[in-house]
Design brief:
With about 280 residues, this protein is an all-beta fold. The protein has three domains: about 5-50, no CATH class; about 65-145, Sandwich (Immunoglobulin-like); about 155-250, Immunoglobulin-like (Sandwich), CATH 2.60.40.10. About 0% of the residues lie in helices and about 45% in strands. Strand 14 (about 200-205) and strand 15 (about 210-215) form a beta hairpin. The model has no long low-confidence stretch (mean pLDDT about 95).
Length: about 280
């Protein structure tokens, strides 16, 4: 008989008792009864239904999640509260994960959680739940991930006046980025072809966001203010921003006028008259 069942004598006849332990397809079973002078047989058809099969509902609404923001846990409704164990399989948007969980009402089901990391169009995802005895059910969910596909660099509108042979301080010329992270080696100068000699633009991390920063030590003098266009690239797009630079000649003497009249006496030596030079 199906596992968990047995045939026993009861009240001068035969009886099938027990608790079926696993599903079974419909099968004819022959029961033999033996008396003092002979035997007889009878047939019975038994089928054991799998009551642990998951019954997940499709989501009737479509989900739109912002990129790089953790989503609220999203549970599939399992209509079969008798599901004992369950495994969940399938793919979801990058950054999201799929797990089997037990809800507060004690029902086993599938859950999507996490933080989406890539912008994507509305996409169909099929999630398969497997019950205790291998029976499966599949439900669908539609998810899109919205957000910027490219960096968003802000212009640095205030002129950055640098000093010849003096290193640029950390964070002195750093672009604010409110879009996608800039890729490694994703910063470059568009116009003019190059920054002042000694300077480069590189990718840095600022408050968890990848952006562009100009670093280095200028070794040429740029007496006029020049506009530079910096391009930032991510895996999905690009953006540009402006910065205005000049480089002071810190080696040029800066002597001050002597405002008071220096009265000298003819044929008399005098104390040397020094002009103040503010350039070290």
């Amino acid at each position: 008989l199906p596992i968990g069942l047995s045939a026993v004598m009861a009240s001068n006849t035969c009886e099938i008792t027990g608790t079926p332990a696993s599903p079974a397809v419909e099968t004819e079973y022959t029961i033999t009864a033996s008396g003092a002078t002979g035997t007889d047989t009878a047939s019975v058809y038994l089928k054991v239904k799998d009551t642990t099969v998951p019954e997940l509902d499709d989501f009737k609404t479509q989900f739109s999640f912002p990129v790089n923001q953790e989503i609220s846990d999203t549970f599939f409704v399992n209509q079969n509260s008798s599901t004992e164990t369950i495994t969940c399989s399938g793919t979801v948007a990058p950054g999201l994960s799929l797990a089997n969980v037990t809800t507060s009402t004690g029902v086993n089901t599938c859950q999507i959680s996490g933080t989406p990391t890539e912008v994507s169009a509305m996409t169909y995802y099929a999630i398969t739940a497997t019950g205790k005895f291998g029976a499966t059910d599949t439900a669908v969910i539609y998810i899109e991930v919205t957000g910027d596909t490219a960096p968003k660099l802000a212009d640095i509108n205030r002129t950055q006046t640098l000093s010849y042979s003096v290193a640029v301080a950390t964070n002195e010329i750093r672009f604010s980025n409110t879009g996608q992270d800039v890729a490694a080696n994703g910063c470059e100068v568009v116009t003019p072809p190059d920054l002042p000699s000694g300077l480069t633009v590189t990718t840095v991390t600022d408050s968890g966001k990848q952006t562009c920063e100009i670093i280095g030590t200028p070794d040429e003098v740029i007496s006029t203010v020049v506009s530079y266009t910096i391009k930032a690239s991510s895996a999905l797009g690009t953006d540009t921003a402006l910065v205005y630079l000049s480089v002071d000649d810190t080696t040029k003497p800066k002597i001050q006028d002597i405002d008071s009249t220096q009265v000298l006496t003819v044929s008399q030596p005098f104390t040397p008259i020094f002009f103040s030079n503010s350039t070290a």
